[in-house]
Structures are given as structure tokens and as C-alpha cells.
């Protein structure tokens, strides 16, 4: 075979993959601060997360546009085409994960400076968040390493998050008759739901890993048909 | 190809049998399928199936094509891709026996058209080339002939009745998507047309003799993008009437026009598959490397 060709194109594609996956680091950072804001009811920190979401959106727009340009100018095919298609999905996931952090942070002022918090429920939410951060990091490693096995393992990790979410729901139901506590619990449930969605987005990235490697897209789990 | 079996082929001994007579012929035959031009409302044919069995081709001692077995389906466009020198043009030229015209060149194996061995000793090579038309990289209209004379040149050589020439020439021009552009200048010089028009004129000339198969060797490499797209659209329409095999270096063109794509390397067939599969998820790593431009 002749010598390597299209090196600039390949370098640009690698750069864009690194940049898109770097968006997951931004999300992890946003999630970490979101959890801190939840734990300490820190409204200022929550506002910072909301403002910083522009960085995630900016990353999305910048890499998305560059990928479209590559599609238009380089006519990628085969693995390159699958990679670009997958990166477009990953970017959308990154953008949605950032938005979920914003959703959580926007709820924090609603529960006031000294909410009638239930420590057990806060602990559960922090645990969900910690587990979801692990998922995000694992999704990034799976994508970068084209590791389908590691990507599939995200489903198992996501089950942990789902179980914690259900536990949150149970606690909210049992939180008592006090209206303020019930309102706080409902707000926290929405936060837990947002974290659960972030974890689902990480699993979606895992599905894209399998697509890049195998050329076949299969949902790891069909939400419309729960495992029986 | 070493077979000495006698093949009775009226189409080869009688250049232009009447359609009725053709339908009554017995025994294996090639060329002149009896179908009309697209303009005459041809029906889908289900003929023009080409099979290569262990095809090898040589230039002297240079083994250019190595044991290729492949089928080109009727009503399909097949694109042959591969780096320069991989044997794709040589392979295609074996189908209409153009390869053997080069001094020192020879072929081995079998080339079957609808089951008939085109290298059978009883086969008339002129009939083969009428059944398997070819369009080349650069448009090559006969420079001293008018547009209509260019189109009907092949018909005249095969002895078509003079009274039919103009109608069949017109049908071929319609089939090649050129009629509207040249209907007012049929007597003008063919060489006076634009490059894209000249190439479609050559396609019309090939179509006029009603081939079963049309080989296209880089037919758009000398054309601008608009002329290229016209040829590509034409290929999409023509595949209903004629089996098309196109050699191209332009992989986007292969992706746009072909139902099946064949990748060749070093004279060997590496991969054959549905075009969307070859360009999204090829089976062979060498195909992957080539289509993504990592070598070539």
C-alpha cells in the first residue's frame, strides 16, 4: 500500500474527537459543582453553573460546526463517517447533560436558604450524582478507547443510578404531611430525575461507541420494553 | 476460453437480423436483445447478466488481473474502485475483449454473458463489442461526422437499414438525455458539442446498437461537475435497460451511482458488496483504508 494520506484531515478529525469528548469533562465539572450547590444549598454556586453552561453550549456549537464542515469538504466514509455521526450524537448528549445541570441549579433557589431538608434524601442524591460522574468518565474512556465491553458496562452502572432514583421517590412519598417538606421533596425529586437523565445520556454515548466499532446501532436497553 | 465448442450465433454471422427474425433464432446468441430504446418504451429485461469466472489478465508476463470471479447483475450499476494500476480497467476491458487488442496481452478464465462464453472460439468479437458497449475516459466522437452520423455510425457498420437510422439515432439521443440539446443541430459537427455533450453523444452511439452491457471507464473524469451530474443521472435511468459497469476513481461518484461496489487491489478482488455497506461499514480492512483515503 502507498504511504499514509490525508494526514491533515485525520488530525482535524482527531482534534474534534478530543474536543467533543472534552465536553464530557466540562459536564463532569458542572455536575460536581451542581452537587456541591445541592449539598450546601449554595445559590451563588448554582448561578455560576447556570452561567458556565455557555461554555458547554459553545463547545457544542464549535465542534458541531467543524464536523459539518468536515462532512461537506472531506466526504468521510466508513469508520470516519461513523465516527463523525457518533460525535454529533455525543455532542448532543453533552449539551443535554449540561442543560440538566442547569435545571437542577435553577431549582435550588426555589427551596430557600434554609430548606426543611431530609438528610437521607440529600445523601441519596449526592450518591446518584457521584455514580453519574463515574458513568460520564467511563463513557469518555470507552469512546476514546473504542472499548465496547466498557461501553456495555455503563448499563450496569446506570442500573445503580436508577435504583437510587427509585429510592428517592420512596423517601419523597414517606416524607410526611408538612407542606414545606413535601415541596422541598418534590423539588429534589425533579433534581434526582435530572441526574438520572444525565446517566441515561452517558449510556447513549456507550451505544455510539458500539456503533463506531461495529457499524451497527443497537440500543443497549429498550426503555419501552423493560427487562423482565 | 479454450473451448472449441461450436456456438451458433446468428447475431454474429448476420449483423442485423430483423426483430421478428431474431425472436425466432435458436441456440445461444449475443447482441441485439430485441428491445427498443428507452424512448420506445423498453421493458425491464432481466438479461445482460455478466459472470467472470477465475478471470486473469496479463500484459506479457505482468499478471494484471488475478483470478477474479464476479457477477454483474442485470439492471444494476456496479462500480469498480481501487488505486491506479490495480487492474480495474484491464478487468473491464476483458469483458468486451478489448484487452486482447494490446500486443502481448492475454486473458484466461471465463467471461459469460447470459451464460454464453464470450471467449468461445466460435464467437464473433465484433458481436461481443456490440453486445458490450464501452464509453471511455475522454469523449471520442468521430471528428468529421455530424451529430446524427456519430450516433448512427455503429448502426451503419452493422448494416442497419438506412430507413431506420434516423429513428434509431433519435431514440439513442433521447436515451442519452441529449435529444433536446441537439435536435436542432443534428447535421452539425459532433466535435462542436461541449465536453459533457460529447460524452453523452458517445453514450448515445453505444446505446444505438442496443447493447446488453455498457462499460464505462472513468466516463466523467474529463467533465465539469454539472456535466458529471448529468451523466450520473443518465446512468441511473439507463440501468433499467442495460447492465452498467463503471470504473471510477471518484469514490463519491461510485457511492452516488452504483448499486454494488467492487474494490480491487493489486489485480485481486478484495471486496464486493452493496454500495451503502462498502462506504459505511466495509468488511475488509484494506477497503476501509482505501475508501477513507488512508492510502491510494
* Strand segment tally of chain B: 10
Biggest sheet details of chain B: 6 strands, mixed
Q: What is the general shape of chain B?
A: globular
The CATH architecture category of the domain at 38-144 and 212-291 in chain B equals 3-Layer(aba) Sandwich
Q: Count the DSSP helices of chain B.
A: 12
Termini separation of chain B (Å)? 33 Å
Shape of chain A: elongated
Q: How many structural units, i.e. domains of chain A?
A: 1
CATH topology of the domain at 38-144 and 212-291 in chain B: Rossmann fold
Classify the beta-strand content of chain A into a percent band: under 5%
Question: How helix-rich are the residues of chain B, as a percent range?
Answer: 25-40%
Radius of gyration of chain B: 19 Å
- Give the topology string of chain B: H per helix, E per strand: HHEEEHEEHEHHHHEHEHEEHH
* Regions with little confidence, pLDDT below 50 for 5+ residues of chain A: none
Q: Quaternary arrangement of the chains shown?
A: heterodimer
Amino acid at each position: 500500500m502507498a504511504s499514509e494520506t490525508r494526514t491533515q484531515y485525520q488530525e482535524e478529525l482527531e482534534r474534534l474527537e478530543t474536543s467533543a469528548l472534552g465536553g464530557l469533562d466540562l459536564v463532569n465539572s458542572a455536575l460536581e459543582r451542581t452537587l456541591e450547590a445541592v449539598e450546601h444549598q449554595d445559590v451563588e454556586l448554582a448561578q455560576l453553573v447556570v452561567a458556565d453552561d455557555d461554555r458547554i453550549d459553545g463547545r457544542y456549537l464549535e465542534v458541531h460546526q467543524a464536523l459539518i464542515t468536515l462532512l461537506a469538504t472531506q466526504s468521510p466514509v466508513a469508520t470516519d463517517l461513523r465516527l463523525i455521526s457518533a460525535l454529533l450524537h455525543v455532542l448532543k448528549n453533552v449539551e443535554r447533560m449540561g442543560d440538566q445541570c442547569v435545571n437542577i441549579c435553577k431549582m435550588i433557589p426555589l427551596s430557600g436558604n434554609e430548606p426543611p431538608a431530609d438528610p437521607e434524601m440529600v445523601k441519596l442524591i449526592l450518591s446518584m450524582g457521584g455514580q453519574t460522574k463515574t458513568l460520564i468518565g467511563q463513557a469518555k474512556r470507552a469512546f476514546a478507547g473504542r472499548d465496547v465491553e466498557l461501553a456495555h458496562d455503563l448499563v450496569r452502572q446506570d442500573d445503580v443510578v436508577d435504583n437510587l432514583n427509585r429510592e428517592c421517590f420512596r423517601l419523597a412519598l414517606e416524607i410526611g404531611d408538612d407542606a414545606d417538606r413535601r415541596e422541598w421533596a418534590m423539588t429534589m425529586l425533579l433534581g434526582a430525575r435530572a441526574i438520572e437523565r444525565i446517566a441515561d445520556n452517558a449510556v447513549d454515548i456507550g451505544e455510539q461507541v458500539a456503533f463506531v466499532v461495529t457499524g451497527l446501532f443497537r440500543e443497549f436497553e429498550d426503555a419501552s420494553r423493560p427487562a423482565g | 476460453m479454450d473451448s472449441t465448442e461450436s456456438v451458433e450465433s446468428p447475431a454474429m454471422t448476420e449483423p442485423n437480423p430483423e426483430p421478428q427474425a431474431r425472436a425466432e433464432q435458436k441456440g445461444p446468441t449475443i447482441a441485439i436483445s430485441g428491445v427498443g430504446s428507452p424512448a420506445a418504451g423498453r421493458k425491464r429485461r432481466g438479461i445482460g447478466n455478466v459472470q467472470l469466472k477465475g478471470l486473469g489478465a496479463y500484459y506479457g508476463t505482468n499478471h494484471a488481473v488475478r483470478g477474479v470471479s464476479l457477477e454483474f447483475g442485470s439492471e444494476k450499476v456496479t462500480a469498480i474502485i481501487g488505486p491506479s494500476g490495480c487492474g480495474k480497467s484491464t478487468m473491464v476491458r476483458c469483458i468486451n475483449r478489448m484487452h486482447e487488442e494490446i500486443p502481448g496481452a492475454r486473458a484466461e478464465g471465463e467471461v459469460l454473458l447470459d451464460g454464453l462464453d464470450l471467449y468461445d472460439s466460435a464467437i464473433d468479437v465484433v458481436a461481443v463489442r456490440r453486445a458490450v458497449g464501452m464509453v471511455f475516459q475522454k469523449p471520442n466522437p468521430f471528428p468529421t461526422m455530424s451529430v446524427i452520423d456519430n450516433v448512427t455510425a455503429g448502426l451503419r457498420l452493422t448494416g442497419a437499414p438506412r430507413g431506420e437510422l434516423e429513428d434509431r439515432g433519435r431514440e439513442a439521443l433521447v436515451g442519452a438525455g441529449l435529444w433536446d440539446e441537439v435536435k436542432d443541430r443534428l447535421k452539425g459537427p459532433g466535435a462542436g458539442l461541449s465536453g459533457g455533450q460529447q460524452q453523452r453523444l458517445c453514450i448515445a452511439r453505444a446505446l444505438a446498437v442496443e447493447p446488453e452491457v455498457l462499460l464505462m471507464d472513468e466516463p466523467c473524469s474529463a467533465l465539469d461537475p454539472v456535466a458529471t451530474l448529468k451523466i450520473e443521472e443518465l446512468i441511473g435511468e439507463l440501468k433499467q435497460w442495460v447492465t452498467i459497469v463503471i470504473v471510477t476513481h471518484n469514490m463519491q461518484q461510485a457511492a452516488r451511482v452504483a448499486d454494488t461496489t467492487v474494490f480491487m487491489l493489486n489485480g485481486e478482488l478484495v471486496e464486493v458488496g452493496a454500495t451503502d455497506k462498502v462506504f459505511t461499514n466495509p468488511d475488509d480492512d484494506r477497503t476501509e483504508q482505501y475508501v477513507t483515503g488512508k492510502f491510494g
